[in-house]
Write a structure and sequence with these properties.
The chain is α+β, with helices and mostly antiparallel strands. The protein folds into 2 domains: 87 residues; 227 residues, BirA Bifunctional Protein, domain 2 (2-Layer Sandwich). The chain is built from 12 helices and 11 strands. Strands 1, 5, 6, 7, 8, 9, 10 and 11 form an 8-stranded mixed β-sheet that branches. A hairpin with a 2-residue loop joins strand 8 and strand 9. Bound molecules: ligand 2U9. The site of ligand 2U9 has 20 residues, from helix 8, strand 6, strand 10 and strand 11.
Length: 360
């Protein structure tokens, strides 16, 4: 037996005897690592004469091959044994009860957004979304709020410093979800029925205003649309949302640059246990703004206002949630206080459906 045959046999035996993956790795380093024995033999090839290299080279390379192969085989055997051991010892008891108590809850804002999507889907509306970082044209100009318009000041806009849009104007955080409807009117052919729920931003902060708040706006564009369609839609929505039939609406003339005529929408309330509850008509509270879409807005989106009319409305989702679920402090919505979330949050399994009830 040559020296190489016995060397190969020795390495094979050492490798086969490695009891676990860590010991096998130690053998690999001892043979094939930078300072390893087999690597050392390979290095001697450089100092040999061409004749020596021709006779020794194949033997040394064969030794390296044999060691590499033995390591691979032992590794596969050790891994298979480890898997067998795990399969034999690790078991899942499918009869164990569910963990007690749900972890986490659905935030009331998300819950109300889901309720809105469900209610309006039933009326043929789809949900549209768009960017929260907007350009001046989509947030203001297209909505009939030109440069000098006082409504721009009312919106308390957060502007970006350096980023400019195509017209050289500063980019901004959208102050309402209306640019979503502008983008939809540009991208899709009428008739359209959409709601646009989402985050909006205004530089305003007190007990009833937060710099980021949630809005939902609705838009219908069709032929022959009139105020009667608007009032019916809002009444149907509020009845479904508050799950009461005694919803009474009052439309008060108002002004928004993007609608003409415009109306604030009040809903009747009754007082129960010192708290205003939507329904009945002991008093009125404002819940929505609305109106017929201004012909200039329709034209700005590339549609002919003589052919297409529409109505739009907007309201704060946070306020809707407070009215329906009885919270009295808006700022708590954004505190992330687990006790508040456990109290006012919803189960993720409790998906709002019209048949099962949109409330919880
Ligand atoms: C397009 C055309 C018209 C959306 C509208 C209101 C009236 C409104 C406020 C209510 C409370 C915002 O959250 S709030 O401060 N909104 O009163 N919004 S009409 O009108 C549109 C939108 C898009 C293309």
């Amino acid at each position: 037996m040559s020296d190489f045959d016995s060397l190969t046999g020795e390495w094979r035996a050492r490798i086969a005897a490695a009891p676990d993956l860590a010991s096998l790795e130690a053998e690999r380093v001892a043979a094939l690592g930078k300072q390893g024995a087999v690597t050392g033999l390979l290095k001697t090839l450089g100092g040999m004469t061409p004749e020596e290299r021709q006779s020794e080279g194949p033997r040394i390379h064969a030794l390296r091959e044999a060691v590499t192969e033995a390591i691979g085989a032992r590794k596969a055997a050790l891994e298979a044994a480890e898997l067998e051991r795990k399969l034999a010892t690790e078991t899942l008891d499918m009869t164990l009860p569910m963990p007690t108590g749900e972890q986490g809850s659905v935030h009331p804002v998300s819950q109300v957004m889901d309720e809105l999507a469900e209610i309006f889907a039933d009326l043929g509306f789809s949900v549209a979304t768009g960017p929260e970082i907007e350009d001046d044209w989509h947030n203001f100009t297209a909505l009939n709020i030109p440069e000098s318009h006082p409504a721009r000041a009312m919106h308390d806009t957060f502007y970006f410093g350096a980023d400019k849009d195509r017209d050289g104007k500063r980019m901004l955080l959208r102050t309402h979800t209306s640019p979503v409807q502008i983008r939809t009117m540009q991208a899709e052919k009428p008739p359209l029925r959409i709601i646009a729920p989402g985050r909006t931003y205004r530089s305003d902060s007190d007990a009833t205003h937060t710099p980021m708040f949630h809005q939902v706006e609705g838009l219908v564009i069709d032929r022959g649309t009139h105020l009667g369609h608007l009032k019916w839609t809002l009444e149907t929505f509020l009845k479904a949302f508050f799950e009461r039939d005694d919803i009474v609406l009052r439309l008060r003339p108002s002004y928004f640059p993007f609608t003409e005529p415009s109306a604030e929408v009040d809903v009747g309330y009754t007082v129960q246990n010192g708290r205003r509850v939507v329904g009945g008509s002991d008093g009125w509270m404002e819940v929505l703004g609305s109106g017929m879409v201004h012909p200039r807005v329709i034209a700005a989106c590339g549609l002919d206002p003589d052919e297409w009319q529409g109505f739009a409305f907007g309201c704060g989702i946070d306020r809707l949630a407070m009215l329906k679920y009885g919270m009295d402090d808006l700022r708590a919505f954004f505190d992330g206080d687990l006790r508040w979330l456990r109290h006012y949050g919803f189960s993720s399994l409790d998906v709002p459906t019209l048949s099962g009830g949109v409330g919880a």
